[in-house]
Design brief:
The chain is of the alpha+beta class. It is built from 8 helices and 8 strands; from the N terminus they run H-H-H-H-H-E-E-H-E-E-E-E-E-H-E-H.
């Protein structure tokens, strides 16, 4: 069975009829406009506010238990996400949205920021803020500063930026020493990108690597000589 307009082959009579009334070569074809086109235009213009249909968001808003996601499902989602192709426009849009997120939720990118598989530990700074330090080294430094009566916080209020790959990035050091206006960065492995971050603070940044951590462990680090 072939379409009388474009000769496309159809499997059965019903599919043939459905195709012919929509065939591009049919001058009297029916035109179907998706309701989503109008809906999306209203979303973009701000005429209406999009209500999330995400099951996790719904559960959170309604105070219900968060749905369980198996490891198998998580793996499938991860694989599907990696197959997506990102164009320049999408990359730019994503970059701008991330910068906006950092500006509006700074605490999520400083005090509560957790990297990779590093274990986090709850701690309270000298301002009474509860947050998480990343790994045993940061925990050791937090305890060391507290023991030496040095006022510090993990919440970085100053807007610190650096350039990397032709883009402006935000930098959040690990600790800020309140009375000295100095930052501390705890680092195990140094990369080229780290050097770009550190150079913007010049003499206002102390880098604690393995040597400094060992000195702290052995009670041999005199931090006041560094300030």
């Amino acid at each position: 069975m072939n379409c009388k307009y474009c000769e496309k082959e159809c499997k059965n009579l019903n599919s043939l009829k459905q195709h012919e009334i929509r065939c591009k070569l049919n001058e009297n074809k029916i035109i179907i406009k998706s309701n989503f086109i109008i809906y999306n235009k209203k979303i973009k213009s701000g005429e209406i506010i999009e209500l999330s249909t995400n099951q996790f968001t719904k559960a959170k808003n309604l105070g219900l238990e968060i749905p369980f996601v198996s490891d198998e499902t998580k793996k499938k989602i991860s694989i599907a996400s990696k197959k997506q192709k990102w164009g320049n426009e999408r990359r730019t849009k994503h970059s701008l949205s991330m910068l906006k997120a950092v500006e509006e939720h700074q605490n999520s990118y400083s005090a509560n920021n957790v990297s990779g598989r590093t274990k986090s530990y709850d701690y309270i700074d000298n301002l009474g803020n509860k947050f998480s330090v990343k790994g045993t080294w940061e925990l050791l430094v937090a305890e060391f500063l507290t023991k030496n009566n040095i006022k510090w916080t993990n919440i970085i209020q100053e807007r610190i930026t650096y350039n990397w790959e032709d883009k402006e990035r935000r930098y959040f050091p690990d600790f800020y020493l309140i009375d000295y206006n100095i930052y501390i960065e705890v680092k195990g492995y140094e990369r080229e990108r780290d050097l770009k971050k550190w150079e913007v603070l010049e003499n206002r940044l102390l880098i604690f690597k393995k040597n400094e951590i060992n000195l702290i462990k052995n009670n041999n680090l005199n931090i006041f000589e560094l300030l």
